[in-house]
Amino acid sequence: MRSTEGTGDAETTTALTLHINGERRAQVVDNRTTLLDLLREEVRLTGAKKGCDHGQCGACTVLLDGHRVNSCLMFAVAADGAHVTTVEGLADGDALHPLQEAFIAHDGFQCGFCTPGQICSGVGAIAEAQAGWPSAVTPDGAPDGPVELTGGEVRERMSGNICRCGAYVNIIDAVREAAR
């Protein structure tokens, strides 16, 4: 349910409801608040990182209704009613998500700053490929159904996530393993 409060003609805040990592949360936010700032500063989920704050690095990637988004570019009010999954919400209790396990097995991180965004993006990329969504490198005339996550497919699908340490080879291996 969306309502606004403000002074005069300027509406400055909005009441909204989000489902964050399976938990329903009602929040009143300044209309200029990004989803990233809401998650980090209000909800205290600090997995998604503020890297460039311009949507160029992918460190802030989260899943919105199962699709990956750069949370630094999205106003929180635009996510009203949505289901948001952060890296903190991927595990099932003590059982890590298969991609989290694959990142550990393949040493898919060095400093770890980009890792939460990489993992959320990888989960989204795997879901897109399984749903048959082509990428820019998917061969023309690809059969209906899942797209095979070759190294080239993973590189293309994950190209919006930057790792300054250069752990790309291991990240690609982790995403491919989790997709299997």
UniProtKB/TrEMBL annotation:
Iron listed as a keyword: yes
UniProt keyword terms in alphabetical order: Iron, Metal-binding, Oxidoreductase
PROSITE patterns in UniProt: 2FE2S_FER_1 (PS00197), 2FE2S_FER_2 (PS51085)
The UniProt record lists the keyword GTP-binding: no
Residue intervals of the 2Fe-2S ferredoxin-type domain: 14-90
Protein name: (2Fe-2S)-binding protein
